[in-house]
Specification:
With 310 residues, this protein is mainly α. It folds into two domains: 218 residues, Alpha-lytic protease prodomain-like, CATH 1.20.1510; 83 residues, Alpha-Beta Plaits (2-Layer Sandwich). 69% of the residues lie in helices and 10% in strands. Strands 1-2-3 form a three-stranded mixed β-sheet. Helix 3 packs parallel to helix 5, helix 3 packs antiparallel against helix 6 and helix 4 runs antiparallel to helix 5. It starts with a helix and ends in an 8-residue tail after the last strand. 40% of the residues are buried.
């Protein structure tokens, strides 16, 4: 098996693991969100809580977002082809951007409902029932649990789209906190506290949306790695036999993968075959040490002519 075939097999295996994990997490998310949305909608209607009904709609949007994650990661994990020689990783960034936009609209919806409640006459506000209180508590516990569960696997497989979905769970948990505080305050005689708390939660939702959107955009525009990681890659190359120095190193982030262009300096007196072998050793070493590196392009420069030989 050639080196190219070995690398391709390794990357294909990595993509399959990513797809399998994302599908498992997202499928659980869809089931939980669908059940939770139905539960909160029923509790909101019978418990006479407008905030909980709005919260149920927010949970329903999570079902849609999880479907987007599955589609985005499924496409991004496809192998390179003739039309996409660098792979499809950026489709995961597209999925993350869509989820960020969904979060923004969810925040706008919650904020709009809060403003309407503030503008409404207090006399028209119906005091929520105990079932609404119970539903809000259950929602907070479930959604916070889903946030940590999804976040764990997002970090494990380095999935931006899955991390965005985790923050969607967190935003839903925060909106449920607003619902809970609103129900408690309404039952204590302060109905407008629900709306005020909702407006504060919108700020957190917008912040999460901005962070997700910025991270996805950075990965879409070929941003380089940070200086520390570039130095670590450079040091890895210098550790290989035959490498005298590194003349240049450029990195670019492509989706959740890294491409490396590096120029190494070798003894000018060795043969072309020996130079090629050194370049192959450097390429293999970097790809093995840094799993996120998808491809390394190594250019070999000859060492300067010894001044004494001039």
């Amino acid at each position: 098996m050639t080196k190219y075939e070995m690398n391709r097999k390794r990357k294909t295996k990595s993509n399959k693991i990513l797809t399998k994990v994302v599908f498992k997490v997202s499928l659980l998310s869809i089931i939980v969100n669908a059940a939770l949305s139905f539960f909160k909608m029923i509790a909101g209607i019978f418990g006479k809580s407008q905030a909980l009904i709005s919260d149920a709609v927010h949970s329903l949007s999570d079902v849609f977002s999880s479907i987007i994650v599955i589609i985005g990661v499924k496409i991004s994990a496809k192998d390179s082809d003739k039309d996409h020689p660098y792979g499809h990783e950026r489709y995961e960034c597209v999925a993350a951007i869509i989820l960020a936009v969904i979060l923004i609209f969810s925040g706008i919806f919650i904020g709009y409902q809060a403003v309407l409640q503030i503008m409404a006459n207090d006399s028209n506000v119906v005091v929520p029932q105990m079932i609404a209180l119970v539903a809000a508590i259950v929602s907070i516990a479930v959604k916070e649990g889903m946030y940590w569960y999804t976040r764990y696997y997002a970090k494990k497989v380095d999935s931006g789209a899955l991390m965005a979905d985790a923050w969607h769970h967190r935003s839903d948990a925060l909106s449920s906190v607003a619902s809970l505080l609103g129900v408690i305050a309404a039952r204590m005689g302060f109905p407008l506290f629900d709306a005020i708390a909702s407006l504060l939660i919108v700020v957190f939702i917008f912040k999460a949306s901005f962070d997700i959107f910025k991270d996805a955009i950075d990965k879409m525009v070929d941003r380089s790695c940070d200086e520390q990681q570039e130095q670590e890659i450079k040091d890895c190359a210098l550790e290989q036999d035959g490498v005298l120095k590194v003349d240049m190193i450029h990195t670019r982030i492509f989706g959740n993968r890294i491409y490396v262009d590096i120029e190494i300096c070798v003894n000018r007196m060795i043969t072309l075959v020996e130079s090629h072998e050194i370049a192959s050793v450097v390429e293999n070493a970097i790809e093995q040490k840094f799993p996120k590196v998808k491809h390394v392009m190594v250019h070999v420069n000859p060492s300067p002519i010894d001044e004494s030989n001039k």
